[in-house]
Amino acid sequence: MNDTDLAFASIEEIGKLFRKRKLSPVEITKLMLARIERLNPNSTLTSPSPLNLLSPKLKSRIGTSRSSRPQGAS
Predict the structure, then answer these.
(1) What is the percent of the chain where pLDDT is above 70?
(2) What is the Cα–Cα distance from 71 to 56, expressed in whole angstroms?
(3) For residues 65 and 52, what is the distance between their CA atoms, to the nearest angstrom?
(4) Alpha-carbon span 54 to 5, nearest angstrom
């Protein structure tokens, strides 16, 4: 399935791809955001940073570096 097919796919089709692990929620999100930016460059929608696309569980495993913590925080 190409990007255009995915953009117009039903939620049922997208769900099947998720279950087969041929597509991830992050991949479809990136695809849709890139499509919006390409087709409507004046959109007020902004793309999330790559860190915001990570799951909360993965974010907690990465943690915060000491240098970015406020002073006095341990």
Answers:
(1) 59
(2) 24
(3) 17
(4) 25
